[in-house]
Fold this protein.
Amino acid sequence: DTGVSQDPRHKITKRGQNVTFRCDPISEHNRLYWYRQTLGQGPEFLTYFQNEAQLEKSRLLSDRFSAERPKGSFSTLEIQRTEQGDSAMYLCASSSNAPLAGGIYEQYFGPGTRLTVT
Amino acid sequence: AQSVTQLDSHVSVSEGTPVLLRCNYSSSYSPSLFWYVQHPNKGLQLLLKYTSAATLVKGINGFEAEFKKSETSFHLTKPSAHMSDAAEYFCVVSDRDDKIIFGKGTRLHILP
């Protein structure tokens, strides 16, 4: 399967613990995005990488959140000192460097990691 | 600033009848618009996209959408609903800064 993969698919943790999620983009896609989706809402942008460079971070990404993409391939999203409000689906997407007409990059989404903080 | 509004949080139709999911957008530039579908426990799947070419866009599974600039709308339609269409549908707007903004979603229920 050559789609975007995410690991784990589900994570249950106790408040205060640290968690780390992994995303493997489509091979050779150099753009990688993280989103968070809470119940009843659409996904919200968190951060974006082009190769290994983190180019943008949303205000949603508090200082307890950190994302890395050290070799420009897979990415990790870490949440420190988790809170119950962090419970959500965390989605990863990737896109190539070839834009569609209009200069937009089509994003391909992974299945997500569902985080439950108890 | 860009935004997208999905006018219905839930839509119920009978199997075999038409589907209409409504979406209005706001964008500073000529936007690109997308519809994604999310089935339970599955990733977001792109249904169709509009990127300044033909205003009537055909997607997968018999869905289509029409870009109407005068109405700032991009409604999703399908002539005949199938049980497998039951899912959450998201309207998405994107402009030149590569940000994409999702609507809150419309849950489509198909009645037998």
